[in-house]
Amino acid sequence: MKKKIVVTGGTGYIGSHTTVELLESGFDVVIIDNLYNSEAEVIERIYKLTGIKPVLEIFDLCDSDKLERFFNLNNDIAAIIHFAAYKSVGESVNKPLEYYHNNLLSLVNLLGAMKRHNIPNLVFSSSCTVYGQPEKLPVTESAPLQPATSPYGNTKQVGEAIIRDTTASDKNIKAISLRYFNPIGAHPSALIGELPNGVPENLVPFITQTAYGLRDELKVFGDDYDTPDGSCIRDYLHVVDLAKAHVVAVMRLIEAENKANFEVFNLGTGIGVSVLEAIRSFERVSGIKLKYKITGRRPGDIEKIWADPSFANKELGWKTLSSLDEAMKTAWDWERYIRSRK
Fold first, then answer.
1. CATH number at residue 19
2. Structure confidence at residue 90 as a pLDDT band (50, 70, 90)
3. Which of 71, 83, 129, 133 is 20 to 30 A from 234, alpha carbon to alpha carbon?
4. Which residues are catalytic?
5. Residue 19, beta-bridge partner list
6. What are 101-160's pLDDT values in tens digits?
7. Domain with 284 in it: what CATH number?
8. CA-CA distance, 13 to 213, in Å (whole number)?
9. What is the span of the domain harbouring residue 215?
10. What are the Cα distances from residue 319, in Å, to 166, 241, 302, 322?
11. Measured in Å, how far apart are the chain's first and last C-alpha atoms?
12. Are 84 and 119 in a shared domain?
């Protein structure tokens, strides 16, 4: 019998790619999503890709009554992958209360439901923002967590603490927190990808929208950082590589191969790439000269960070396979596909 996995935020960017990988790995998937920053049409695209249409339940995890009703009707869940959260660093600086309410209450509600309904396994969508600006690079899982530079980053730190305390007090719940660096790109089919509502907060969709003519120009936030070209450095990994890590993490928990009740893994390429290098990568694969302007630094941004993924490589048997250029090409293919349909 197929194992049933609940994917919260499963119509979103990383959630939809992970749903595809889960279905292709033989799992049943039920998605919970309030469609705050995604569209129900994604389900049809997942169906085109996999031949399977996952169940979509549309409600907000902050609504504990609806969540309870859902679990009363679904009593055979093997694991939950929890993506559902607000995720913009910049927006969180302006709307801290909304971020704390949404990201933390949804998690508390979910863990409470897991305890009541004996759901043993949780994979948590965390972030390298928990490290703040690290003192040493590349960052290992044992690096001290610095004070968060944004409310969004703080919700991931507090979220991990909530999960850690829960798994320490209830040995029936096991969890893996995946701290990812900067996911980019789209499925190679161009059927699913990143489609933010409004003005993109992330670099790559802003790049592709600018190249397509939807934005006048790209803003590069700061060229006076202590980096080789003055722009911020991040670790960009292909979203399909990232999605595959969630499948591996779920299987590790289901098959009881975890070595502690709460485990943490960094997911990245191990390569630091500056904003200006990312722009040049896009220009290489698209043949388009991008219009961009250097502006002041953005609140909440850190200077440089990239992963040491060796622990995930060794323990999970997972590593990134796609290059920066390959990821950029899929992002551009997706942008052109989605705009051609509008």
1. 3.40.50.720
2. confident
3. 83
4. 152
5. none
6. 999 999 999 999 999 999 999 999 999 999 989 999 999 999 999 988 889 999 999 999
7. 3.90.25.10
8. 22
9. 203-233+270-311+322-340
10. 29, 7, 25, 10
11. 40
12. yes
